[in-house]
Amino acid sequence: MGVVDVNNKQFSHLSIGVYGHDPLSCFDDDGRPKRTGTAWTASAHIITAVIGSGVLSLAWAIAQLGWIIGPAVMLIFSIVIYYTSTLLADCYRSGDPLFGKRNYTYMHVVQSNLGGFKVKLCGLTQYLGLFGVAIGYTIAASTSMMAVKRSNCFHTNGGKSPCHVSDNPYMIAFGIAEILLSQIPDFDQISWLSIVAAVMSFTYSSIGLVLGIAQVAANKTIKGSLSGISVGKVSETQKIWRSFQALGNIAFAYSFSIILIEIQDTVKSPPSESKTMKRASLLSIGVTTIFYMACGCMGYAAFGDLAPGNLLTGFGFYNPFWLLDIANIAIVIHLVGAYQVYSQPLFAFIEKWASQKWPDTDFITKEIQIRVPGLGPLKLNLFRLVWRTLFVITTTTISMLLPFFNDVVGLLGALGFWPLTVYFPIEMYIAQKKVPKWSTKWVSLQILSMACLVISVAAAAGSIAGVVLDLKVYKPFRTSY
C-alpha cells in the first residue's frame, strides 16, 4: 500500500521495460497492482462463495413452510440481500464514490463509516460467526463421512442391517486433519483452494438436484402440501419452531455479505466499483436463487414432509450408492478447505493481538525453523501451534456435544443475517450518504432493519428450540446413527 515512488529510477526503468508505458498505469490509485475484475468475475466469486453446504438443508426448510410460503420466503430473502448488498457496495469508497479512500474489508468499511463501539460489535459478531461456522463444518463433514460408511453398509447388506455408525471417530479424524492444516501459514491464500472448493460445492449440489429430479420422476407425483409439514406428524409448537428455524437455514444459505467488500476490491474502474458490484450482485443472487429454488423444491417434491435435514446424508436416497459417495466425499473435501478459509481470519486476529500484547515473549513471537524432508524448511511458532490446536479441539468437542447439522445451520444463519447482512450495511449507508433522520428513506431503512431483526430473533429461537428437542434423545459421545 501507499504511493508508488516514481522517483526511483531503477523501478521506473524496470516498469517501462516490462510494460512499455508509464509505470503508474500498472497501479491503481492506492498504489496496489491494477485491478482487473469485472461484473462477470465478481459474480463468479459470489456464486462460488454462496453455494455451499447451506444448500443441503433447503429441502427441509421448504418442507416446514410449504409450497407457497417456502419459495416466497426464499425470494424475499434474495431481494433483501440484493438490496443490502447494493447499500454495502456504495460504502466501498469513503467520501467520493469514484476517487474516495478504498476500504479493503468489511471491518474497514465499518471503521471508516461508523467507528467506535460498532467496530468492536462488528468484529465480535464476525468472529463468533466464524467460530460457529467451524463447528457447523465439522458436523457437516463428519456426517458426510458417516454417510459414506452407511451407504456402503446398506449396499453390502442389501438394506437388511440398520448400519448404526457413531459420528465421533469421524469428527476426531476431521479435527486431526484441521490441526495439521492450521499450521500451514496462509493456507487460505493457496491459489488452487478456491477452485477445488468451487468444483466440489457444485458437484454435490448438482448431484442433490439431479437425485431430487430422478426421485420425483420415480414417484410419478409431486409430494408436499401448500402449508408444509402437517400438524400431527409434529405438534403445533414444533411446527412453529421448525418454521422459524427454516428461516435461519435459508438465511445461512445466502450469507456472503462479509466477503462482498473483498470481492469488490478485485474490480477494475471505470465504471465505478459500486456500479459493477451492483450488477454482479444482481446476476449472482439471481443465479443462486434459481439454483436454490430448484434444489429446495425438488428435494421437497421428492420427499414431502419427510425431506431430510441434510439432503445427501438424511438417507432419502439410497441408490445409486456410488453417486451418493461421490457427493459426500465432495462435501468433505470442500469443508476441509473451507474450515481453514473461515478460521484463518480468527487465527490471525488472535495472533496479532497476542504479539502486540506481549511483543517480547519468545513463546508468542519466536519462529522455529524445522526442516521437513521433501518440503524444505517449515516455520513453527509455539503460540500458533498451541492456540490453533486448542481452537480445533474446542470446535470438535462442541460438535461432538451438539452434532445437529440442521439446528446449527439455522442458528448460524439467524445470528449472522441481521447484523452483518442488514444492520451494518444500512447504518453505514445512512452515515455515508448522510440520510436525514426521520426522512422517508431513513424511516424505510429502519423498518427494514427492524423487520429483519425480528426474523433473526425468531430463527434463532426456532434453532435453539430444535437443539433442546434433539438433546432430549441424544446422549453425548454415545448416540449412533
Summarize the structure.
It contains 15 helices and four strands.
Topology:
Elements: H1 9-19, H2 39-50, H3 58-89, E1 93-94, E2 101-102, H4 106-113, H5 117-157, H6 168-182, H7 193-219, H8 236-254, H9 257-264, H10 273-303, H11 321-357, H12 362-365, E3 367-372, E4 376-381, H13 382-401, H14 405-433, H15 440-471
Antiparallel strand pairs: 1-2, 3-4
Helix pairs in contact: 2-9, 2-10, 3-8, 3-9, 3-10, 3-14, 5-6, 5-11, 5-13, 5-14, 6-11, 6-13, 7-10, 7-11, 8-14, 8-15, 14-15
GO molecular function: symporter activity
Pfam family, one: Aa_trans
Family: Belongs to the amino acid/polyamine transporter 2 family. Amino acid/auxin permease (AAAP) (TC 2.A.18.2) subfamily.
Describe this entry's structure for a reader.
This protein is mainly alpha-helical and 481 residues long. 68% of the residues lie in helices and 3% in strands. Strands 1-2 form a two-stranded antiparallel sheet. A two-stranded antiparallel sheet has the order 3-4. Helix 3 packs across helix 9, helix 5 packs across helix 6 and helix 5 crosses helix 13. The protein is globular, with a radius of gyration of 24 Å.
What oligomeric arrangement do these chains adopt? single chain
Q: CA-to-CA gap between the ends?
A: 53 Å
- The number of distinct β-strands equals 4
Q: Which of globular, elongated, flat, extended, rod-shaped describes the shape?
A: globular
Mean pLDDT: 82
GO biological process, one term: amino acid transport
Keywords: Amino-acid transport, Cell membrane, Membrane, Symport, Transmembrane, Transmembrane helix, Transport
Pfam family, one: Aa_trans
GO molecular function: symporter activity
